[in-house]
Amino acid sequence: MATENRKQQLHVFFFPFLGHGHTIPTVDMAKLFASRGVRATIITTPLNLPLISRSLQESTALGLPINLIPIKFPCAEAGLPEGCENVDAITSPDMFPIFFKATTMLQEPLEQLLQEHHPDCLIAGWIFPWATDSAAKFGIPRIVFNGSGFFPLCVGNSIALHQPYKDVVPDSDPFVIPNLPGIEIQMTRMVLSPYIVNNEDNVIARLSKAAAQSEVTSFGVVVNSFYELEGIYADHYKKVLGRRAWSIGPVSLCNRDIKEKSHRGKQSSMDARDCLKWLDSKKPNSVVYICFGSYSDFTIHQLREIAMGLEASGQNFIWVARESKKTKKEQGGDIDEDQGWLPEGFEKRMEGKGLIIRGWAPQVLILEHESVGGFVTHCGWNSTLEGVSAGVPMATWPLCAEQFYNERLVTQVLRIGVSVGSKKWIPVVGDYVEKVAIMKAVKEIMEGEEAEEMRNRAKELARMAREAVEEGGSSYSDFNSLIEELVGLSN
Ligand code: UDP
C-alpha cells in the first residue's frame, strides 16, 4: 500500500526522438505508466504536439495523468526549412545530418524543464546520448528508449564490437555475427549502414557511438518487446553484455478500443470504420496488408512494380502508398510527366479486390482484423512487433536502419516470414525489388502449407504477446519491477 501511494507521486518525463516510429511507442509507454498511476509528461516540439495530443484523447477523457510540454525545435538556427520537426518532413538525404545536429541543440531547453519540474526519471530516445548527463546534473536517472528489440540490440552490439564485416570482399559475401546466442546469423556489408562499414566520421556516426555508450552509463534501457519472443537475446543483452533492461511490450497492446487504435500517429487518410467495413466483407486470412512505415519514400518505378506484383499475386490487399516526395524529374529515367504513379487501369481492375490508402493508415486496427492474413513490411521494429502481435506471417522488405537485423529475426529465428529479397541498405528508398519477387513473396505468406505453418507459429506468438502484458505476464512483471526500482530511488 505504501508503494501504491508512492506510485501516485512518481513523475516520469518522456522525451522521444522526433520520428513517428519513436513517438508512437513512447505515447503508448506513457499511457502504460499513467494507467498504473504514474504521472507522465511528454516533451515534444510544437508541430509534433497536436499529433500526440490526438493520440491521447481517450486517455485524457479517462483522466489519466499525462501532460504535454512543447519545446522549440531550432529549424532556422540549424539551417532546416521551417516546419521540419520530424524525420518524415525530411525531403533529401543531405538533410539528415542537419536534422540530427539540430536535435543536439535541444539540450539546453530540456535541462531548463528538468530543473523546473524535477521529475523522478527521464526516458529519452537513444539519439539524445547527452540526455544522460543532462539528467545527472539534477540527480535524475535517465533511461534509454532505443525503439528496437533485444535481437537487433545484440546484433548491433556484436557488429560494433567485433567488426566482422572488416576485410570481407566482395560486399555481397556473407559473414557470421559473432558471439550471438541461438542459431547462426549471417549478414553482408551491403545490408549494413555505410556509417558502420566505412567508419565515417559525421554527426550521425558520432551520435550513434555516443548513444551506444549511453546505454552503458544510463540507469537502464526500456525495451518494447516481450520475453517469450526473444528471451535468449534478452538474457544475452543483460547477462553477457551487462546492460540493465526491462522488457515491457508489446506496448501497442495498451490500445484497447477502435478509437485508441486508429488515433496512433498521424490522422488516418481513410476513416477507420470504412476500413473495417471493407475488411469485414473479406474472408478470414484473405487480405495482405502492405505498408513501409512512417517515412519511406519509394520512386514511382518502385510503386508501379509493387502494384504489378500485387495484381499478379491474385490476393486481396490493403496497400498504404504515398507518391514520392521527389518530383518526377528528380527521379529521372523514363517517367512520363503526365502519367500517374499507378499502372494504367490498375484501380479499375482492382475494384473490390484492393484498397489503396494514400498517406496514413490505422495500421494496428487493420493488422488485427481477422481478414488480414499477411503483412508486407519494411521491418521497422514497431511494425515487426505489431505484425507479431497480430499473428500474421510477414514478407520482409527492409530498407535501412536496423531493419535487416529485424528481417533475420522474423525469417530465420522466429520463422514467421519470407524475404522479398532486398539486398542493400539504402536510406528511405530501399533496394529496388521487381514485381516477380513481390508476387512470389506475397503468395508464399498467403497460400499453401508453409504459409499455414508460419501463420500457426505467428498466432502462437500473438497469444504469448497478449499474455505477456496481462497481469502476471512477463512484461507486466518486468514493468512492475521497473516501477518498484523508480519508487525505491525516489524515496
Ligand atoms: N504507422 C501507422 N500507419 C501508417 C504507417 C505507419 O499507424 O500508415 C505506424 C505503425 O503502426 C508503427 C509506426 O507507424 O507503429 C512505424 O514504426 P516502425 O518502427 O515500424 O517504422 P519507422 O516508421 O520508424 O521506419
UniProtKB/TrEMBL annotation:
<dbReference type="GO" id="GO:0035251">
    <property type="term" value="F:UDP-glucosyltransferase activity"/>
</dbReference>
<protein>
    <recommendedName>
        <fullName>Glycosyltransferase</fullName>
        <ecNumber>2.4.1.-</ecNumber>
    </recommendedName>
</protein>
<comment type="similarity">
    <text>Belongs to the UDP-glycosyltransferase family.</text>
</comment>
<dbReference type="InterPro" id="IPR002213">
    <property type="entry name" value="UDP_glucos_trans"/>
</dbReference>
<dbReference type="Pfam" id="PF00201">
    <property type="entry name" value="UDPGT"/>
</dbReference>
<keyword id="KW-0328">Glycosyltransferase</keyword>
<dbReference type="InterPro" id="IPR035595">
    <property type="entry name" value="UDP_glycos_trans_CS"/>
</dbReference>
<keyword id="KW-0808">Transferase</keyword>
